[in-house]
């Protein structure tokens, strides 16, 4: 898979559950943060878009867990994005940095709204592609 963006971060202790592994919900946080960083790297600010009535929201999130992350692990979140009709589809993978082992994979379907109404695209968002 050809990725167009990646960022690296570290697992914090409080993100882990009793088993000593990252709680499943935190992978969604990692991926959301990565999508926001990606947009920022392309000059898109969610708060600026929102002030103009433009919002990008998650419509569907499908994730597969492969191998757990543990406290202090460095991880790299990589992504690519495609447009499918009215959806912006992000394919995201999280790898443990130490051994490049795949920890989680997701497909995240997002849609754009302008003034609360679904649109088939927007030039600002299409520029991400």
Descriptive overview:
By secondary structure, this protein is an alpha+beta fold. It is 22% helix and 43% strand. The chain is built from three helices and six strands. The protein has helices at 24-41, 46-51, 123-126, and strands at 5-10, 54-65, 74-84, 87-96, 101-114, 117-119. Strands 1, 2, 3, 4, 5 and 6 form a six-stranded antiparallel beta sheet that branches. The model has no long low-confidence stretch (mean pLDDT 93).
- Main beta sheet strand tally, sense and closure: 6 strands, antiparallel
Number of E-type strands: 6
Helix content: 10-25%
Number of helices: 3
Strand content: 35-45%
* Overall radius of gyration: 15 Å
Average pLDDT value? 93
Uncertain residue ranges: none
H and E order:
EHHEEEEEH
What class do helices, strands and sheet pairing give?
A: alpha+beta
């Amino acid at each position: 898979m050809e990725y167009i963006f990646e960022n690296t971060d570290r697992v914090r202790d409080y993100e882990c559950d009793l088993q000593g592994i990252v709680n499943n919900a935190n992978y969604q946080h990692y991926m959301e943060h990565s999508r926001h960083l990606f947009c920022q790297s392309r000059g898109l600010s969610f708060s600026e878009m929102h002030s103009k009535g433009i919002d990008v929201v998650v419509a569907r999130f499908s994730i597969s867990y492969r191998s757990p992350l543990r406290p202090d692990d460095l991880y790299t979140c990589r992504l690519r994005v495609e447009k499918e009709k009215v959806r912006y589809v992000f394919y995201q993978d999280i790898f443990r940095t130490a051994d490049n082992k795949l920890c989680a994979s997701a497909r995240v379907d997002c849609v754009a709204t302008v003034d609360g109404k679904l649109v088939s695209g927007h030039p600002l968002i299409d520029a991400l592609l």
